Amino acid sequence: MKVWKVWTIFFILFGLLGGYIFWQKDRIDTNFFSLIENDEIKENSYIFHDLKKQISKEIVFLIDDKNISDTLILKLKNSNLFKKVTYSFDGDYKRFIKDLNSSKLALLDKKNFKILKENPTLFFKNSIREIFSPFGQRVLGVGEDFFGLTKDYGKINQTKVYFDIKDERLKVKDRDKIYFFINASLKDKYNDEKLLRIILDSQDISKKYNSSFLVSGGAIYSALGKQTGEQQGFYMSLAALLLTALLLWLAFKNIKIFFILFVAVFGLIFGLSGTFLFFKKVHILGIVLSTSLIGLMYDFALHWLSFSSKKLVPIKRVLKIFLLGFFITTTGYGVFLFAPFELLKQVAVFSIFALIGAFLTTYFLLPTLFYHVNFKASRKFVSILDLYQKFLLKTNRVFHIKSLILILLLGIGFYTFLSLKFVDNIKDYASTPKSWLNLANKISKITNVQNSTEVVIVNGVDFLKKEIDFTNELKDKKLISSYNGISNFFLSKKEQEEVKRLFKTYKNDKQILSLFREVGIKKDIVLKQFDSVIALKSQPISQIVTKPTFIQFSHFLPQKDKSIIYLNSTKDKDEIFRIAKKHHVLYVDFISSLNTSFENIKIISIKLKIYAYIVAAILLAIFFGAKRAFLMISLVLISTLLALFVMSLFGFHINIFAIYGLILASAVGIDYMIFAQNNDQSTHQKLFGITLASLTTFISFFILSFSSTPAVSVFGVSVSICVICCAFFASLLTINQSIKKV
Amino acid sequence: MRIIFIFLIFISLSNGFDFESLQDGLRAKKIEGNFTQIKVIKNFPAPFISSGEFSISDSKTLIWKNIKPINETIKIDENGFFTLDENSKWKKVNQSMDKDIFLDLLSIKKDSLQKIFSLDLKGDSSLWILVLKPKENILKEIFDAIKISGDSFVREFELNEKNGDKSTIKFTNLKKIL
Question: What is the interface pTM, i.e. ipTM, of the complex?
Answer without folding.
Answer: 0.85
